[in-house]
Each structure stands twice: as C-alpha cells, then as structure tokens.
C-alpha cells in the first residue's frame, strides 16, 4: 500500500459556484495518503467573448509527486484558451491540442522536465452555443453523466491491460508486467511521466505512455441530462458510476443539501475507517458535481426540477459506506458512521506506516513529504563529507571504512562500555564493521 498516515487528514477543500450555464460543488481531501497530489479546475466561463459561453471543468490526479498535477491545475485553462482550435469553437480538437501542449509546456520548465511525477486528467468543456459537452480523458480518473438518473460514461479508464493500450506499449518497446507499464505505472495514459515518453522517433500518441486523450462528445438534452461528475480514482475505487449517481440523487432528494455538501459527504462515504482492509478508501479524493442549467434557470430551480422527477435513490450515505467497508464493524447508530472522517486528528501526533503488499490503487511508489529518496550515491556523498568512504565490492556488497568510521565506532563502544562490562577476550571483540548489504 506504500506509506500511509496513522490517521487520515480530513481537512477538506470545498468550493461552489454558478452562472447562466452550470453550477458546481467541489470537495477534495488528502485522506490517508502522505501528501495531497490532486488538483482541479472549475471555470464557469472561459470564452472571454460574447458569441459563446463556455464552461471548463477538470480533475487531475497526480502520482509520484504533486508537481505535474499542480502545474495542470494552475495552467490547464490558460493552455486550452491559447489553442487556435479553441478560438474557432473546435472544442474536441482543442482539448487534444491542449493535452499535448501541456506536456510541451512542462518540458520547457527546467525543474519540471526532470520531475518524475505525472497525472491523469479528466476534463470537460460545455458550449452554450453548440448545446454540447466535450469530455477529454487520459488515465483512470473518470467523468460520468446522470441522464434521467442513469449513469452514462463520458470517459473510459486507460489501463495497461486493455488490448489497444497494451499494443501501443509493446510497439513502443515497453512491456506490461503485474498489470503495470514496465512493471511500474498502473495506468497507460497521463500528462508528464516523461521517462515513458523518451522515444524521439515516435509522435505523442505512439509513446509507451501517451498524453493524448480519448474524446467523447454529447449533445445536451436538458429534459434528460441532469448533472456531470468528474472525480479521481480514489472515488471510483469505492463507488461504481451508478452508485455515485444514486448517492447524488439521494442528497438532492433530501432537500437541504447543497452540491458542495453532497460532494463532501461522498468523500466521507469513500474515506476508509481503517487501513486494515483491502486498501480502497486510502487514496486522495476529489469530486466535482456539475449541474446542467437550462437557459434562465437558477440553481434553486434546478434542484426543484431534479427533485420533481422523483428518482428512486433509496440507499443512504450511511448504508453505502457500510457496504463499501463491510469488513469494518461500524457503530449501530448511523450518526456515528462518519466519525472517522469527520473528527479531525491531531496532525502533530500523526505518523506513517507502510504495507509491503501490492496496491493496485496506487499509481506509483510514494515518499514522505519533505523527504528525499536516498540512493547509494547520495549516501556516499553524506558519508564522504564526514570522512567515511564507501567502496563497491562483488555480489552487490558495499564496504564502509575510513578513520572517521573507526572514531564513531570507538565513541559508541566507549559509551556502551561505560554502563556494561564485556567478558569477551580481545581476540573475540570486533574492531570494525566492514560490509552493508544493499
């Protein structure tokens, strides 16, 4: 499962907003992970012109670090608007162009180009003039439409085991092992991850891991189409698309919840009460619920319109949480079901643990925030600064020696002997430590 906290960080980032085309509610939470690697965009009008009103929403799920996802969250909207195809209203091609351009922009940054992180991206553009929505997806985040309370996929998860994805990977001299790209990455399309895009003879769409998204276009029918969900795999690992749609309808039917509150409660539903289960519910979580507003319709009018449809959504938040984590013994009182994800832990007493079991939910190995992974070369530098040398022997064995090492060992030995006697003869006592196994 990688490194996880002893208690989840349940402080949430929540936003909401509305205009003449859409309204949204967002919730993002770090959860059990060592750091928050998700980012998002909620831009209700990015056209900047009078002819069309365009909304843009996106969720970016980082892996191997947060740098690429953070860049996308800050720059993706700007990159999209700069595309010539966007200015012409060719939104399907504009989204493809923007994904490729984002990779190119990252490579121009001297720091990010050598960063080993990446991110999945699921994005949506809605055009008031064209009465269409366009979804672009790369990776295993997901966009789902509620169409008369039925979940309709607007994106498809990109896993290395899919025939089409595996064919591209192998053709680019990669391989799939343990359901991962080159035995490492659990998804086959992403922004960043340049170590998998190093073949200069291949175009972007043919690289081992490609940033080029799939595109789905959908003409909006306001009598049937109700809202769109964009979320990272931390949500979809716990809920099917239909279960998520049902929970949102359940929240709408309650009559006293905002989109922001519904998205927040869904995050609570998906946050694992413990780390002793299968690993689901221990990921970062981000979800955006986007209401599709009719011309001249307010958000309150939209809520009433959806409630008046009287969709059957009888499974409560509490019941769904119990079913997801059926291995856990929740309190019988429903009011206590969300205690683990609503009671804030003391961050100062938080610690992390690790689990060596394979985790299919984690895209790449993580490290604790503020720590740098140390390899043998950085260890050599650290020891060398103190007068200690490291040399490489055979059979993958490293030898540590030097006068400084002898002084350190002597001081430790002296401190030990001050409180304890050693009955061994001089010949039996070691005078140095010679080898350390890698």
From TrEMBL:
Cofactor(s) this protein cannot do without: Mg(2+); Mn(2+)
E.C. designation(s): 3.1.3.16
Alphabetized InterPro entries for the sequence: PP2C, PP2C_BS, PPM-type-like_dom_sf, PPM-type_phosphatase-like_dom
PANTHER family on file: AT28366P-RELATED, PROTEIN PHOSPHATASE 2C
Family: Belongs to the PP2C family.
Pfam families in alphabetical order: PP2C
Sample GO molecular function, one term: metal ion binding
Span list, region Disordered: 341-369, 413-438
GO biological process, one term: regulation of mitotic DNA damage checkpoint
Biased composition (Basic and acidic residues): 419-438
UniProt-listed Gene3D superfamilies: PPM-type phosphatase domain
Catalytic activity annotation: O-phospho-L-threonyl-[protein] + H2O = L-threonyl-[protein] + phosphate
UniProt keyword annotations, A-Z: Hydrolase, Manganese, Metal-binding, Protein phosphatase
EC main group: hydrolase
The protein's name: protein-serine/threonine phosphatase
Annotated source species: Lachancea fermentati (Zygosaccharomyces fermentati)
Domain (PPM-type phosphatase) ranges: 23-292
